[in-house]
Q: What sequence folds into this?
C-alpha cells in the first residue's frame, strides 16, 4: 500500500483547524488533507473543552478516510500519540523523554505537552493535534508544559515537518500490520504496570493499578472491586 500523501494548507488564523477540515471533508476533500493554523480562536479539546491556541504552538488537523470498521477508529488516537511522542522526543534535549497517558495525551515530566482529538464523522476521521511549543495554559485543570520550557526546539515549522513524517510512518505501520505493533510501542511509553492511575468516567473517579492496554486500546486496571476494562474516560492522575 502506498504511503499517505499529505496536502498541507497553512493559515494564519482559524477558529479551529478541525472545524475547517470538517468543512473540507463535506466538500469531498481527500484522505491526507492537512489544515494548520498559526493561531486558533476557537480551539477545541476533548469533552468540548477549550484548547489554548495562541501563536507559537502547533495546531494541525488531518483528514483520513481509513478502510477499517468503525470500532477500530479509536486506534488512530494511539497511532497519533506515537507519532506525536516521537516528534516531541526528537525536539527535546537528550535525557528528557516523553511519556504517554491513556488514551492519547503526551506528557513530559508528568505535564501535558500535546493533546489529540479524534472525531469520526460519516465516512471520515478528523485527527486534531496540538503541541505546546512556546505556550501552555496557566489555569488548566491539569499540569501543562511546553517544548521550550523543557529545553527543546522552538520552531513550529520544524515540528510540523517532523510530525507529518512520523504520522505517515505510523499510519503506514498501522495499515500494514494492524494495531498490535502500535499497542506494543505505546506500552513502552505508557505507565509502568502496577502504577496507580486515577480514571474519570461519566463523572465518577476510580483508582486502580495499571495492568495493560488491551488489544483494542481499552485500559485495563485492577481496582479493589476487581478488574475494570475502560473504553471511554480519561486518566487524570498517573
Ligand atoms: C485534548 O483535549 O487533549 C485534545 C486537544 C486537541 C487540540 C487540537 S489543536 C488542532 C485541532 N484543532 C482543534 O480545535 N483541536 C485540535
A:
Amino acid at each position: 500500500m502506498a504511503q499517505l500523501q499529505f496536502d498541507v494548507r497553512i493559515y494564519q488564523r482559524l477558529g479551529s483547524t478541525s472545524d475547517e477540515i470538517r468543512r473540507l471533508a463535506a466538500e469531498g476533500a481527500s484522505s491526507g488533507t492537512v489544515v494548520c493554523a498559526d493561531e486558533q480562536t476557537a480551539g477545541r479539546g476533548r469533552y468540548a473543552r477549550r484548547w489554548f491556541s495562541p501563536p507559537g504552538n502547533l495546531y494541525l488537523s488531518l483528514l483520513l478516510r481509513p478502510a477499517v470498521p468503525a470500532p477500530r477508529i479509536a486506534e488512530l488516537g494511539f497511532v497519533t500519540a506515537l507519532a506525536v511522542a516521537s516528534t516531541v522526543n526528537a525536539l527535546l534535549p537528550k535525557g528528557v523523554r516523553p511519556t504517554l497517558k491513556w488514551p492519547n495525551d503526551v506528557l513530559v515530566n508528568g505535564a501535558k505537552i500535546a493533546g489529540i482529538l479524534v472525531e469520526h464523522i460519516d465516512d471520515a476521521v478528523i485527527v486534531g493535534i496540538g503541541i505546546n511549543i512556546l505556550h501552555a495554559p496557566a489555569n488548566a485543570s491539569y499540569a501543562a508544559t511546553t517544548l521550550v520550557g523543557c529545553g527543546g526546539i522552538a520552531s513550529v515549522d520544524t515540528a510540523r515537518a517532523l510530525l507529518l513524517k512520523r504520522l505517515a510512518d505510523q499510519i503506514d505501520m498501522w495499515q500494514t500490520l494492524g494495531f498490535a505493533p502500535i499497542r506494543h510501542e505505546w506500552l513502552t511509553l505508557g505507565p509502568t504496570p502496577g502504577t496507580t492511575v486515577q480514571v474519570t468516567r461519566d463523572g465518577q473517579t476510580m483508582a486502580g493499578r495499571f495492568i495493560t492496554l488491551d488489544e483494542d486500546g481499552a485500559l485495563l486496571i485492577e481496582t479493589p472491586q476487581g478488574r475494570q476494562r475502560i473504553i471511554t474516560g480519561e486518566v487524570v492522575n498517573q
Q: What stands out?
A: The chain has four helices and twelve strands.
